[in-house]
Design a protein that fits this description.
There is one protein chain. With about 110 residues, the protein is an all-alpha fold. It has a single domain, classed as Ribosomal protein S20 (Methane Monooxygenase Hydroxylase, Chain G, domain 1, Up-down Bundle). Helix 1 packs antiparallel against helix 2 and helix 2 runs antiparallel to helix 3. It is flat, with a radius of gyration of 20 Å. The N and C termini lie far apart (about 50 Å).
């Protein structure tokens, strides 16, 4: 544990910032999960509403420094592509890829 007054103060500030960042990260991840579930169900209206809320949360997380700008842009782009695919009915929701099996060396 820190002994200097300034180090003690920094430790207190770090605890507060960590709590805030964790709450923001959790909020974003929950919104992303809800959107992915709506896409998996094929509920277009719910997915579009959830997409707008998720994009808003992603932008706010960039402003707060929780996510990098390019990371949020990548999320938004990929989620929008999945939303369009489900809405048009041309593409099924993208499923998780199965894990590759490691080859045994002889």
């Amino acid at each position: 544990m820190a002994n200097h007054v300034s180090a003690l103060k920094r430790a207190r500030q770090t605890e507060k910032k960590t709590a805030v960042n964790r709450a923001n990260t959790t909020r974003v991840r929950t919104s992303l999960r809800a959107l992915r579930e709506a896409l998996a169900k094929g509920d277009i209206a719910a997915a579009q509403a959830q997409f707008r809320a998720t994009v808003s949360l992603l932008d706010k997380s960039v402003q707060k420094g929780v996510l990098h700008d390019n990371t949020a842009s990548r999320y938004k782009s990929r989620l929008n592509a999945r939303l369009k695919a489900v809405a048009s009915g041309t593409g099924a929701p993208k499923a998780a890829k199965p894990a590759k099996k490691a080859k045994a060396k002889a």
